[in-house]
Amino acid sequence: MRLTRSLIPTLKETPAEAQIASHRLMLRAGLVRQTAAGIYAWLPAGLRVLRNIGQVVREEQDAIGCQEVLMPTLQPADLWRQSGRYDAYGPEMLRVKDRHERDLLYGPTNEEMITDLLRQSVKSYRELPQMLYHIQWKFRDEVRPRFGVMRGREFLMKDAYSFDLDYAGAVLSYRRMMLAYMRTFQRLGVKAIPMVADTGPIGGDLSHEFIILAPTGESGVFFDAGFEEIDWLAADFDASKPEDLERFFTQMTSLYAATDEKHDAAAWAKVPADRRREGRGIEVGHIFYFGRKYSEPMGLTVAGPDGAQIIPEMGSYGIGVSRLVGAVIEASHDEAGIIWPDSIAPFRAAILNLKQGDATTGAICETLYAKLGANALYDDRDERAGVKFNDADLMGHPWQIVVGPRGAANGKVELKRRAGGERVELSVEDALARVLGA
Length: 438
Hints:
BirA Bifunctional Protein, domain 2; 13 helices; alpha+beta; 23 strands; 2 domains; globular; Rossmann fold
């Protein structure tokens, strides 16, 4: 994409309403614009990041056999009355009526709707287990929306749901999803620590929050360094094998991790001193087993082997896709701007032409642009070099290919790595190989 033809409205000054780094940088880098309190329009570069995150999430869900569906944003109130949540949910739910005076709601979550879909579609124990997910917009009418997309009213979420015949099957689904989450966050280039979360009246220990480490996080966290050392993508855990899932979960739960609200000083003291890590973090995911909380009141049953009706056991699994954009920036930025992980950056590289109108620099830039295609943002503006450098750092492209007249005369360009700031002079071919092969 050529910057002269792009809608990427960068800002030099920090907007007054931006209270945290991610909100400030998302506005300044031209990723989003607020349209109402807690509601944002995603501009082209921001939408590219959102889609890149969604694609990584989607691929890891598919890898464990979770099937993608797409449920509507508007839901019939009657489904929520069947579960007992319609009146209990509170003012965060946006309730509306259609022209026929039927009660509807803008979905804050989808337990009722997915249970109804299974109720209509699944009749026999042979059709279970099932795992289904979608990536869809949600709405919760926060009383005080703040911090940009970190705590907005409208947000993009991956929510998945599992249906199993018994508790043992539900545990396997839970562990399978937990493994998928660890792989997802590693692919997104962030460190995520699973923390045991409250399960409420259901009890047990099958609820975990996933916390991304960030200095500006809202929660204090304590964890064993082992979480940072494990390569979840290379680990030999096969999500289709119960014994591997057992081994994975045992390894996970053997490492101490807790938020400040659930911190156990005595257990923390048993962690070797050189392995203790403390910091702050942002919740970006939550997985939860809730048994028959929805399947029973909504009448979801399947015929068992003997013909008797079985009420399936359920779990739900959420990842805040739009929240992750803000969380990644909180965890990965400096004073100059965003530092995108390669996997989710809107553009892999920025091409900076330092002498617009010069035939030699222009020819090299056009060659780079043709080879990189959609991977590159070509800054072809008639602007000073300093403006181009500042905007490239602000927008956080993993690579900057700097084409100046002195180097261009010798067929050379300067390649800068945004993370770390290393610079090296290379031939055009070598620079392309570095950018495309990293």
